[in-house]
């Protein structure tokens, strides 16, 4: 069997990472970055993907070597580290799924011209449908279905991007002036963009759990090299599609002064409609498929991940509680996550801007700490010397932590002064 066939056969955690990451950070934030600030925003997007890479890679590395979850690695370092991750997971529980589902509900309402039902009710239907898929299909179904979804998404988005480039940039207004990047508004936007680009750093624990599930489905344990190659494919795809969305926003909206709405339904209408105006009505189906596939697959993977990691954290914190280890525990966790986040959506009135701002900010501020914990875990006695990250990757990790820490401190300075 060729190396390519082996790699494709083992596609799993990296694919799920790509599916989960290519969501709000791409469809909403990357598009807005191009629309408001132009091509220059490719710099923070690429920087975020490079500087955060080690944080996620360590989740794959630790599980591939030890066959344990990263959550177990935190516990092995000391229970205080696990409590820190538990705190971050609580924030994820109450924000990330709500933000993703409300955007997806807005897209659904736009695509199917639904106007006689609220965004909250559409989100509830999505919660029920996706929860059923996750409970019945489990990990293997999720992995197999996403191979098709990601393929469709990539092809649709690639064609759309090429068409936009061929058509050329939309004429901008003569009086248009690009907003300042390094003022309070610009910095806040950068924090949102980079805080969730490619995704929240705590997702390193999610990737680790997917790796464990993937190991259970395989007859032969993959080598560390193969596990990292598979993840790198997904990670590169994630970064590439972020640039695609940036180009789309830049070519179709930059210079026009169009304000992108904070309402999920209005934003969905703007994103889909701008392609039909710029390229032609026949292009509607391409961006509609790409946009909905982006958000639907992200909802599925994030819902699965948050349920798994919450359960894993509870198992490790309270090993005496047998309920967390029962065969029905995952199904209960999936339903509980759906219920909690639907309540959050109804409380926020379907306005995704508040949800995205809260989730991205917390992810950004906590990123250096989680990154340090991940590095400490892969350098612990659990991982043999030959499997530990090389000096170059360790240096990149420290660079990422310093960069993100300084940026977070600057944000706090803006708030105080």
From TrEMBL:
UniProt keyword Thylakoid, yes or no: no
Give the principal location in a single coarse category.
membrane
Which parts pass through the membrane? 40-60, 81-108, 114-136, 148-165, 185-212, 233-253, 282-307, 328-349, 355-375, 395-416
Cellular component annotations (GO), alphabetically ordered: membrane
Give the membrane topology, semicolon-separated if more than one: Multi-pass membrane protein
In Gene Ontology terms, what is one molecular function of this protein? metal ion transmembrane transporter activity
Q: What are the protein's UniProt keywords? A: Membrane, Transmembrane, Transmembrane helix
Keyword Transmembrane found: yes
- This chain's protein is named Divalent metal cation transporter
Give the species.
Flagellimonas hymeniacidonis
The upper taxonomy is: Bacteria, Pseudomonadati, Bacteroidota, Flavobacteriia, Flavobacteriales
């Amino acid at each position: 069997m060729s190396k390519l066939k082996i790699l494709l056969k083992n596609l799993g955690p990296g694919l799920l990472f790509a599916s989960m990451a290519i969501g709000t950070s791409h469809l909403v934030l990357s598009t807005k970055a191009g629309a408001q600030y132009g091509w220059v925003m490719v710099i923070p997007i690429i920087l975020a993907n490079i500087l955060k890479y080690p944080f996620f890679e360590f989740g794959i590395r630790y599980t591939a070597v030890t066959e344990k979850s990263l959550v177990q690695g935190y516990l092995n370092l000391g229970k205080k580290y696990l409590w820190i991750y538990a705190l971050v997971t609580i924030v994820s529980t109450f924000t990330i799924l709500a933000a993703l589902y409300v955007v997806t509900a807005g897209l659904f309402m736009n695509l199917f011209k639904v106007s006689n039902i609220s965004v909250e009710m559409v989100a509830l239907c999505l919660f029920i449908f996706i929860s059923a898929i996750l409970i019945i299909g489990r990990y293997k179904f999720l992995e197999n279905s996403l191979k098709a979804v990601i393929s469709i998404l990539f092809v649709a988005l690639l064609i759309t991007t090429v068409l936009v480039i061929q058509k050329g940039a939309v004429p901008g207004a003569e009086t248009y002036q690009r907003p300042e990047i390094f003022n309070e508004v610009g910095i806040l936007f950068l924090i949102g963009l980079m805080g969730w680009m490619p995704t929240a750093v705590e997702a390193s624990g999610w990737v680790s759990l997917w790796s464990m599930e993937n190991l259970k489905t395989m007859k032969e344990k993959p080598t560390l090299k193969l596990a990292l190659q598979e993840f790198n494919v997904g990670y590169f795809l994630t970064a590439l599609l972020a640039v695609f969305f940036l180009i789309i926003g830049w070519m179709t909206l930059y210079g026009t002064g169009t304000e992108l709405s904070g309402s999920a339904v209005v934003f969905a209408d703007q994103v889909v409609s701008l392609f039909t105006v710029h390229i032609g009505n026949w292009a509607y189906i391409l961006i509609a498929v790409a946009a909905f596939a982006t958000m639907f697959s992200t909802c599925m993977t994030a819902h699965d991940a948050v349920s798994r990691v919450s359960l894993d954290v509870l198992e490790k914190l309270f090993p005496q509680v047998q309920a967390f280890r029962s065969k029905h525990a995952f199904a209960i966790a999936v339903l509980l996550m759906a219920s909690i986040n639907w309540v959050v959506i109804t409380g926020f009135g379907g306005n995704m801007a508040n949800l995205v701002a809260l989730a991205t900010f917390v992810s950004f501020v906590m990123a250096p700490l989680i990154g340090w914990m991940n590095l400490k875990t892969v350098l612990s006695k659990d991982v043999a010397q030959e499997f530990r990250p090389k000096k170059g990757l360790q240096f990149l990790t420290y660079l990422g932590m310093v960069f993100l820490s300084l940026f977070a401190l600057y944000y706090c300075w803006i708030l105080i002064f």
